[in-house]
Amino acid sequence: MRVLTTVRADRSRVDGKRRWDYAPGMCRNIRVLNNFEPPATGDEIQAAALQYVRKVSGFTKPSQANQEAFDEAVAEVTQATAALLERLVTTAPPKDRVEEAAKARARAAKRYGTVLAERQQPAA
């Protein structure tokens, strides 16, 4: 049996703020899947599991020697996540995906001071 240990990412200061250093190409965002209408799909659950295993392992694409263990971990995390989502209960009304996506875009525009459409316009 393996013993899990806690591993901390390196921290550095940028503009006086603490920042976690992430491996390049790794997704930092694992999204909430609970209490949405329509409910999370199997593909969304599997994608979240893949992100989690990538983060924990430090691999975006494992070597051949690690591929089997990586794939097994993704499958196990997918099953555990699906079981968790099935068993969770809440009294809150389900969130609308379109509405939540619009809120996220508004937060991003405020955070980065730009609107996505402005970035996609060709320079004159």
Notes on the protein architecture:
By secondary structure, the chain is mainly alpha-helical. It has 2 domains: 26-93, no CATH class; 96-124, no CATH class. Helices cover 49% and strands 10% of the residues. The chain is built from 4 helices and 4 strands; from the N terminus they run βββααβαα. It has helices spanning 42-57, 64-87, 97-112, 116-120, and strands spanning 11-14, 17-20, 36-37, 95-96. Strands 1-2 form a two-stranded antiparallel sheet. A two-stranded parallel sheet has the order 3-4. Strand 1 and strand 2 (17-20) form a beta hairpin. The longest helix is centred in the middle third of the chain and has 24 residues, at 64-87. 4% of the residues are buried.
Features of this protein?
single chain, 124 residues, mainly alpha, 2 domains, two-stranded antiparallel sheet, two-stranded parallel ribbon, 49% helix, 10% strand, flat
The 3D shape can be described as flat
Give the fraction of residues assigned to helices.
40-55%
- Overall pLDDT metric: 79
Number of strands: 4
β-sheet strand percentage: 5-15%
Rg, rounded, reads 18 Å
Structural class: mainly alpha
Order of helices and strands: EEEHHEHH
Terminus-to-terminus distance? 62 Å
Number of helices: 4
The stretches of 5 or more residues where confidence is low (pLDDT under 50) are 3-13
Main beta sheet strand tally, sense and closure: 2 strands, antiparallel
Strand order of the largest sheet: 1-2
Our count of domains comes out at 2
